[in-house]
Design goal:
- 2 copies of one chain form a homodimer.
- By secondary structure, chain A is α/β, with parallel strands linked by helices.
- In chain A, 18% of the residues lie in helices and 28% in strands.
- In chain A, strand 8 and strand 9 form a beta hairpin.
- Chain A is elongated and about 95 Å long.
């Protein structure tokens, strides 16, 4: 096997997407729909508002009766009834008459104008208007949307705005994409679970924690697998025991070493789609499948694990979900580099940066070693230094904002 | 009571914050810590890395032995051992000798340089180096952080980067702020639950759905209360039955009408802090307390409900959580208005806008009526049109980005 072929990031994303099967849909109540992906286009079942509604508390009447109303010469109308919200008014309203009306109530057909209570004074059964009534505060039937319109499209991420819109459109439950099940498996004899005493040479398993959070943030279900000892047989057994997985993420075990058993599993017993991407951090990514399960083998350095998730695993999940979200690698903005940003030769380099000045400036957060988590924690974005290029202070650089993904 | 006093937004926020009691903390496992607020400063329990580690697969040796190595004239070293990750090497390594080493393994004290396997060739017990070994790929002890350093501060929102950092710092569980319990209560006879057939004059309860999602996104617990009929007694009973609440959000019932029972409850039986804020949408906000429970009475229009949540309820929750998040009203960026933005006289107007061109341009999303949910759904941000001002095409305008809050 060649160590030399390092494929382009865009090619890696294409291959990964091509192996993602779109999940089935399921129906969930709107109270449980937050962050889920809408699985169908959604048609309005009703007009909104369903009628001409009052936007104020005050009186409904005929504009023509009130044209000359002023503070000095109020117009006097007879109050013949009351229209609370939810209770239509069925009586007749003639010229010279008004009804009191409340926010949300239907404006009676006989009336074409409203006046706010603040601009009136009530005397017995009469109301004095200190200015002309107008139609401005009538919310016209269907001004928000009309029955039959499609407002919410398949593939959107549901949030508070779209969920409340779906309620107003007449829905109580929605068809959403099932959550893909994403396995997470750390490898390496030296990796131990959090909080224990570290023996010489051991490191904490921070990767599984980072990936679990990233997977859930991406709208998928994280399935944490037992850590695999450095042994191809236990690795295979743990994967088999995990049940149906849409994708398995492994950390570690994909490098050039004798103890890289994820690499051995895919090369010896599975299918390898590619090994190594021309990117830093996180270059030695291995992608393939074993017994039908797509496996993304991520290098074990903590920053590599997070960056590879964002660039590649996230693209897989977006495709599996049928989401119309933009793949992070293509979701770029531009700013001015206020510090030089390190290059990585023929590889695209993703430099951890802080955003400043209305997001128009980026600053390196310090050491860019793939083992340095602190500079990842401090970063708002990954600045993209293209292959074979150099970014000096003052250059325009593209960046990927991080906070929405972490 | 006067209808005329409309307080400034900044004053409303100050008053609301002053009534928010900071919640207690609780200890959670790091697997459950996502989106929680860290309740203490966090000191590193270990160095990271704990030793000088290898960042590569290859060989460890002494740089001085390899200075003249080249493709043409390789340097030949004797392989005297192997250092896998997690297994320290206790033997002696002399001049002219090397050990094979793997990613993550401790670099033996006798060695000061590494060479990648790609730049070598193995012949029996010897390795040929095609270039000089260097110290570049040694990850120095504590280069990420040192024992005793405080890296994570009280008040941060935990995410994948901070959670994996906490693991690397030696933690398994963290003290986080408890989730404030936020009651949500819709009022109004005309308001019905989602999905039923609408009778004349009825509207769906979209507000409770929007607020539940917003509350949860803000890191608090949403407690959905039974809808209150328009009656002060049932309203009081429902609130009493809800158990301990840190804040109650009501929608509707705070306007000028005869059926506004939230207003009556606070004015007649509770404490009123303020009524009406000089803002649009969502001006007629009523804030006070009843039987010790802070109550934020939000107008019933769906867009008002969401905007008031962001401007005011979110500020309360941030304070209660002890979060160091910036209050949305003060979390502003700037862009050029590419459409005129409507003013609201002496009120600050929050105009629903789309962001374009690297977030440097804002465009109105259409009707700004507080009943029009569709233009809220389409919005990326709220542009701020200050009181007594006018924004025409080409003006610079401040905006609050929405997506992080919805």
């Amino acid at each position: 096997m060649s160590y030399l072929i390092q494929i382009a990031i865009s090619d890696a994303i294409k291959i990964i997407e091509s192996k993602a099967t779109t999940v089935k849909s399921e129906t969930v109540h709107l109270l449980e729909a937050n962050r889920r992906i809408l699985a169908t286009d959604l048609k309005c079942k009703v007009d909104h508002p369903t009628n001409n509604d009052s936007a104020i508390d005050g009186f409904a009447c005929n504009a023509v009766d009130t044209i000359n109303a002023s503070k000095e010469k109020p117009v006097r109308l007879k109050i013949v009834g009351e229209v609370p919200a939810g209770k239509p008014y069925y009586g007749k309203i003639n010229s010279g008459e008004a009804v009191s009306i409340y926010t949300g109530a239907i404006v009676p057909d006989d009336c074409d104008a409203l006046i706010r209570v603040e601009d009136t004074k009530t005397e017995d059964n009469y109301v004095l208007l200190f200015k002309p009534a107008s139609s401005n505060d009538i919310r016209k039937k269907a001004q928000d949307f009309a029955k039959g319109e499609i407002l919410l499209n398949k593939g959107i991420v549901l949030d508070s705005a779209s969920i409340s819109l779906a309620v107003a459109m007449g829905y109580r439950e929605l068809k959403v994409s099932k959550k893909p099940r994403i396995g997470i498996l750390a490898t390496g004899d030296e990796v131990i679970e959090p909080g224990q005493d570290l023996k010489l040479g051991q490191v904490y398993n921070s990767n599984s924690y980072a990936l679990k959070t990233l997977v859930e943030k991406a709208g998928a279900e994280a399935v944490l697998l037992k850590k695999a000892d450095d042994n191809i047989k236990t690795l295979a057994k743990i994967i088999k025991d995990a049940g149906q997985l849409d994708l398995l993420l492994t950390t570690g075990g994909v490098s050039m070493g004798k103890y890289d058993f994820v690499r051995d599993l895919l090369f010896n017993e599975g299918v390898v789609e590619f090994w190594k991407i021309a990117e830093r951090p996180g270059g030695p990514v291995l992608f393939g499948s074993w017994q039908g399960i797509p496996i993304l083998g991520i290098p074990g350095n903590p920053v590599s694990a997070m960056v590879v998730f964002l660039l590649h695993a996230k693209a897989f999940i977006i495709k599996a979900l049928g989401s119309n979200e933009i793949v992070p690698f293509y979701n770029r903005k531009k700013a001015t580099a206020k510090t030089a940003l390190t290059s990585a030769g023929f590889k695209t380099n993703f430099v951890r940066v802080k955003l400043e000045s209305n997001n128009t400036e980026v600053y390196s957060t310090g050491s860019q070693s793939s083992g340095v988590l602190h500079s990842m924690f401090l970063a708002d974005a990954l600045a993209i230094v293209p292959a074979n290029s150099k970014i000096v202070k003052g250059d325009i650089v593209e960046y990927i904002e991080l906070k929405a993904y972490l």
